[in-house]
Structures are given as structure tokens and as C-alpha cells.
Amino acid sequence: MMSAFLMTEPTAEHEEENLGQFIIHHIKDSHEWNLFGYHIHLPTFEPIRLFGIQVDLSITLHVVMMWVASLILIITFWALFRKKRLVPTGLAAALEAMVLFVRDEIAIPNMGEKGGRKFTPLLATMFFFILTCNLMGLIPLFATATGNISVTASLAVITFIMTQIMGMVENGPIGYFKSMVPSGIPFPLIFIMVPIEIFGLFTKPFALAMRLFANMIAGHTVVFALLGLIIALGSVLVSPFSIAFAVFIDLLELLVAFIQAYIFTMLSSLFIGMAMHPEH
Amino acid sequence: MENSLAMALAYLAAGLGSAIVVIGAGLGIGKIGSSAMDGTARQPEAANAIRTSMIISAALIEGIAFFGLVICFLLGLK
């Protein structure tokens, strides 16, 4: 659909005329933040050479979004849980219910009693951070930090590193690699199963990153495409249907934000739990 | 001319590819929804657990569908 518009729209001087460019410009990372028409130019730094590759550490829009999300989380949890009461009220009760949900439904079933309690801080942090970043993308003047493949890849790398470390801590380095060989299968199949298992070590975090990234990008793309349809078709009669659809897709995106945060956390805990206690 | 043929084929592939991806995701999630409704009809007390599992499976299948979608995006942006 987007490519059709790229081909039929005349390339105009005004940058917003081309629907494809309009969508891409609103979804990708950028070096300025548009607030009510004020362009705030964010600081850029020269790329530095780190371990042989060029690393660009400039502060872009998605970096600022991640900082804002972290600040919101830190201030909310600190302010609500300053006074230690036995029974919290209001928003504190809701947040405590969500943390208990992470502990009792996600951490403990996958990692056992002891491991579950040890890992609840990490899983709760991932859950709330991903949830806050996803929800901030739905607010008009903000952008989705998790709509950047680098951000989701970093979260997946955290999961990957924890999987390897916990697998080696619980089973010993040799024992962890021995668990790559499934037990109870005929000998010739080992030559196929072991590469698949080792390959699976890398594809599972990659799938985590791609799933979160693509879900966030797809939702925003559909909304922008529907709204850009009004301009592309050039008539104002399209707008009621277009806006109604866009509102429906936006509500769906709200649901997807929660679901994707939950799925990322649950799969992370599943992988770490399986590395700690291989159930073969 | 070589370039325009390649670009035309890339756009065609992007369109056809996303159509096939959507068909696959639709079939998969439709099957999940139908078994969820069968299970709920047999045992209404399990409705909540079935609904949770259904949403999780649907999200996982959508994750796979989005792999294909991202490839189609990359092709369409050539």
C-alpha cells in the first residue's frame, strides 16, 4: 500500500506531500524534537571509533524518550513507595498488583521459588520499561523508543547474556553445553540436533527483538497511513471513516502495548528458566 | 532500465509477500480463536485461562507474521 503511494504521488517540493516519506519521517529516529512547531535540535556528537566500528553516540529523539520513560518510572515508584505502609492505596496498589503479577505469574512458574524471587527485579524492570516506552508512543508529541531496532536489540541482548550466565552458573560451563545435546535420541540425529540447538540460542533473542520492534512500528504505520489517506485521496469526505478506523487501530495499539510487554517478559523468563533447569 | 525492472519487481514482491503473510497470520489466528471458542463452550469455567492462552498464542503468531512484514517493508522502500 505504501509503495503504491510512492509510485502514484508526484514528487513535490514540500516534504510532506509524499505519503511514504511522511510515514517514515514520523516513525524513524531523528535529531530534533518537534513540540508544537518548535524544533528542538538535540545535540549530536562525532562518531567515535570503539572496538573497530564507528559508534554514533549523539542524543537522538529515541534516547530522550528512553530517558523520559526511565525518569517517569523512577519518580513514580520512589514517590509512591517512600512511606512503608503495609497496605498501599490507590496507584501504589495498582503498581504493587502488577509487580506481584510479574513475580507470581511470570517469574516463579518459569524459574522456581528461589530463582523466581531473585529474578523478579530484572523482569519487573523490563516489563515496566517496555510498557512505559510503548505507552509513550501513543501520546501525540512523543515517539516510541521501542520502535527502534537498536533499543529492542539491546533488551534482547540483556536476555541473551542472562541466559548464558545463569545457564553456566547453575549447571557449570561444561554441563550447560552438554544440555545442548538432547538426551534419549538415536545417535545419528545428534549431528542435526546440536547445530539446531546452538542456532536456537541466537534466534530466540533475535525473535524477541523483532517481535517487539515490528509490533510497535506496524501499529504506528497503519495509523499514519490511514490518516495520510485523507490527504492522498484529496477529499474531506474520507475523513470520518479514516479517523474512525484510526481511532480503532489506536485502541488496538493500546492493547498490543500491554500484550507485547507481557510477552517479552514472559519469554525472557522462559529462556532464563530453561537455561537454569534444562528439562530434557 | 535494469534498475527500474528490479525496482518494479521489488514492489511487486513486497505487495504479494505482505498479502501471503496476512493470509498465513489470519489462518493461524483463526484456528486459535476457533479452538478457544470450542474449549470455552465445552467448559465455561475455564474461559479465563483459555482467553489468556489464546491472546498469548495470537501475539506469538503475530510476531512471526511481522518478520515477513518487515521484509516486505524493506523491499518496498528500495
Describe the structure.
The complex is a heterodimer of chains A (280) and B (78). With 280 residues, chain A is mainly α. Chain A has helices spanning 2-8, 19-27, 61-80, 91-136, 149-178, 190-233, 239-276; strands spanning 32-35, 38-41, 48-50, 53-55. Mean pLDDT of chain A is 83; it is low at 1-16. Chain B is mainly alpha-helical and 78 residues long. Chain B has a single domain, classed as F1F0 ATP synthase subunit C (F1FO ATP Synthase). In chain B, 91% of the residues lie in helices and 0% in strands. Chain B has helices at 2-42, 47-76.
Task: Outline the secondary-structure elements.
The complex is a heterodimer of chains A (280) and B (78).
Chain A: H1 2-8, H2 19-27, E1 32-35, E2 38-41, E3 48-50, E4 53-55, H3 61-80, H4 91-136, H5 149-178, H6 190-233, H7 239-276
Antiparallel strand pairs in A: 1-2, 3-4
Helix pairs in contact in A: 2-6, 3-4, 4-7, 5-6, 5-7, 6-7
Chain B: H1 2-42, H2 47-76
Helix pairs in contact in B: 1-2
Tags for this entry?
heterodimer; A: 280 residues; two-stranded antiparallel sheet; globular; B: F1FO ATP Synthase; 2 helices
